[in-house]
What we know:
The chain is an alpha+beta fold. The chain has a single domain (13-134), classed as rbstp2171. It is 43% helix and 16% strand. The strands form two sheets. A three-stranded antiparallel sheet has the order 1-2-5. A two-stranded antiparallel sheet has the order 3-4. The chain is flat. The mean pLDDT is 87.
Amino acid sequence: xxxxxxxxxxxxxxxxxxxxxxxxxxxxxxxxxIPFEFQAISREREKEIRKSCxxxxxxxxxxxxxxxxxxxxxxxxxxxxxxxxxxxxxxxQKSYGVMGEVDLLKAMLLPGEFTEALLVAxxxxxxxxxxxxxxEEAKN
Length: 140
């Protein structure tokens, strides 16, 4: 395979997934922590999430300005990347007394656990890589 062919759509790994224990509070039958599973989302999906968290607000000096609700974006981003447990499962949502993936994730996780989930969601989407690290990796 030539170097250029490595970039062809059919040769690119489309399903980047990371399994990680986010909390030791969720255990299997043997008492082992159950890992959550996170998957990368498309750039288009990220743009949809960002747009849903964006609003226009009037500013006295500049007229209209665009504001992104960062907390809402982060919540929706992490929920969109979480593939296990299935946050869309209605029985799971009912067990926590919530409706919707974002509300379920916030009800399930403690603040520190949510931060860990965010870090993994960022990693699976390539946000954990420093450009200098990528250059070094490419050299080797």
